[in-house]
Records
---
Amino acid sequence: MKVLAADGLGFSVPIDSVSKIIEHFKKSGRVIRPWIGLKMIELNKMIIAQLKERYPMFPDVEKGILVPTVIPGSPADRAGFKPGDVVVRFDGKPLIEIMDDRVGQRIRVVVERSSKETVTLEVIPEEANPDM
């Protein structure tokens, strides 16, 4: 797709994403997105090094997703997520790609916490509010 007002600027959407959107429209007439109620920051080596320098108790991880905020009353809150958690696995797979369209289906999440604590949580995504 090209942006008319910007010469030479364009973007693309992966065909897998388009196929899922089409399936959602066929089934329910709208796109359904999962929501667990976390604010997330994908960590890289530079961010991890800075966090370890600032917070000596930061988990010893090489990659993951930092959870700075858990929405009160959300599926993540009910599952036991805490601000500062570092998600290292969703259902045994790397990072968040697993959520896909799994509304209502239990997902096991491995979280690293300070003090070298590893916790496995189970969260059930809800349908995202389209007005949010």
Note: The helical segments are 15-28, 45-54, 75-79.
---
Amino acid sequence: MAHAAQVGLQDATSPIMEELITFHDHALMIIFLICFLVLYALFLTLTTKLTNTNISDAQEMETVWTILPAIILVLIALPSLRILYMTDEVNDPSLTIKSIGHQWYWTYEYTDYGGLIFNSYMLPPLFLEPGDLRLLDVDNRVVLPIEAPIRMMITSQDVLHSWAIPTLGLKTDAIPGRLNQTTFTATRPGVYYGQCSEICGANHSFMPIVLELIPLKIFEMGPVFTL
């Protein structure tokens, strides 16, 4: 999860998030180079007194500064499209979870385990245990296995919500009357936090999401579903 004074993105817990971080660094380096070039040109323009009459009609220079931005856009667009198509892939998921947004809590349904359904509310400050996180911990966590493709079916019962887990690279809108889906494969165990990322009313800030990712062997033992 994020910590105080953090500058970069959260550590990746899924292959998609690893790709997103790599693309972020790739695009940021291109932005740095463009900014440096523009600032350098401005500096030369403001400090030099030399003039060249040939610059007023330089078709070669105009050709270069027209083609170069197009090449830069292609270098950014190609990896971006690759990641976009990767996020839409659904390859034989091992488990399907349905998440329903409400004002202001989440309902989860394990469709592959006899229709297990439970609500997940934010823990009030009076019920927090030592080590719990204020405004982030919930009474019932979503327990899922690692190294297994998981499909999330996301919808809403009242207004627009958004189911988001930054460390997994997930952000999917929950829309009333529509069922959206997203997939992910977690690569390491742990507890990961997210929040509703769509302004949904007065208590928008108080509907966190908590995933507890555990090894598959432990997940299949069953006691994790005792709520």
Note: The chain has three helices and ten strands.
---
Amino acid sequence: MSFLDLLIRAGYIPQGIPLQLIGYLPEETSFLPWHAASRALYQLDKLLDRTDDYRLFSDYVLKQVASRYHQMGWPTNGPGTEGNILQASYQTEELQRELIMLACSFGNKQCHRQAVAYISDWISSNKNSLYR
């Protein structure tokens, strides 16, 4: 449990403050703030799941994630890009993964379609074979 969680539970910080704090995320380009926010968002997701306010919460999260997710997109796996160390920095790759996880977890339809396409390609490519 984070220090912020403890302050909220003790009543020192109103519960809406963390959601207001993530309002700056669409402008954020670094991995670590997104990672910290996603950890808090997943905790809130568990708390609000199956409540009347869940739809408002998930729509808010998707709104915060949308622009950066669309900007970063999915990894490119075209010819000659496998194993290319210079393709993207570690932090950029981690940010991309974090945004994909948030977008898909909170119901972004385009993210779901892309994930299904990647899985289908992986299955049909025979790279999933246990015996080679």
Note: The helical segments are 3-9, 17-21, 31-48, 54-72, 90-105, 109-124.
---
Amino acid sequence: VATRQMETKPVITCLKTLLIVYSFVFWITGAILLAVGIWGKVMLGPYISLIADNSTNSPYVLIGTGTVIIVFGLFGCFATCRGSPWMLKLYAMFLSLVFLAELVAGISGFVFRHEIKGTFHRTYTDAVLNYNAEDEASRAVDYLQHTLRCCGVYNYTSWFGSVYYPSNGIPASCCFNSSDCKPEDLRNATLALNKVYHQGCYERVTSFMETNMAIIAGVTFGIAFSQLIGMLLACCLSRIITANQYEMV
């Protein structure tokens, strides 16, 4: 039995080291999600309000998920250092839940990407048609057009049917040179042609989504399957420690 314990000890030490390293990386992942959630809430609020029909809680979901992962990452380190079998099993169970959640989220995002594009088209078109330069949706449109250097849904002619155009013309956020973009120019469709961006915002956003969807899906699935490594390490360590305790008894 003593010889057996001597052979098992290096294996336990190795598994503990690997699991602590993994838990630290897992903790960093949680910190990144937390930072992205906060950044998304602060910086991407206008974009999110246009992509979703109603106010979305996506940033709060990221903040909550990141916080939980940070807590369980620390718990994983503590459970590994303590060498507690039941704590390690609980940690493995949590990793399995995270794995399933990320897998479902990744598949859903990839499968329903066309529905997301349709929702954006509908909400952005509605925001353009009802633009008044004052409410939240209007400010979101201005922010989107100025940041992405685009104008209207498909192009600047999308503004001709808006309630804002008859008295004010095309919004100044469409201008590619604000110093050379007078209000009277924006009320004249012929003059505005040489003053505003020609590409529509719908094409800009959807082309970005199509270009980066494969990368986003790959990263999501990669992070999800990395949970399997943690689950395997935690289960193996728990089993070896339990077996070693029985042998000592």
Note: Residues 95 and 227 are 6 Å apart (CA to CA).
